[in-house]
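Predict fold of Thioesterase-like superfamily protein; 241 aa.
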Amino acid sequence: MTTAAELQTVVTVPARFRGPEGVANGGWIAGTVSEALHGAQHDSAVEVTLHAPTPLDTQLHLRHLANTATLTHGENLLVEAITVAEELDAPEFVPFNEAALAEGGFVGFVAHPFPGCFVCGVRDPGDGMRIFPGRVSGTDLVAAGWRVPMTVAEEDGVVSDAIIWAALDCATGWAHFQPGESALLGRLTARIHRRVYPGGTYSVVARATGREGRKLFGESAVYEVDGTLVASARAVWIIPA
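Predicted 3D structure, encoded as tokens:
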């Protein structure tokens, strides 16, 4: 039963926004649930926990109650978002030309566990985001030049939070992965500072910040060409048992 204080929406995830085959990209779905919580306000960070993979083309329930938003499939909790009062560290800026050059070292060109991923998969231009983070020479960073396709804009010309969260997501995994390695996003905490514009060029930068058992930790950021911070994130990935 929906209370007067609760907002509930039925949503489906189009197959275009997949990560691993058959399920939603973790960053995209995290951003979608975050946007339900915050709307257009970005005055604090949001922590999103992915409890289970989100199926595609399936009716799901998105609920917003007070400072929490959840996505469920039947009785199963898939995603949960909460507001958090903390600042997020961002890896340092990499100029766009250097970030684009680093793409040549993208490990996914050798062996990609999720080649159909909306964000980092080798999809057709305009269909996927084609963000290919490679090692930046002489640093502990990976980076990619993000050329924002016009096809990710909403009808009003705005690039949604879900797209920005997606851009922040995969790079933190590729900061760890070697050929043949993979993991699944378990938690993403992010804050958006500025809008992203279709047709624009941005740097996506990430670094690995640690490992604990099956958990991989990383940080990422999106920058404008002049080094202005657009968004930053902290990620936890889980290596399958």
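DSSP finds three helices and eleven strands in the chain.
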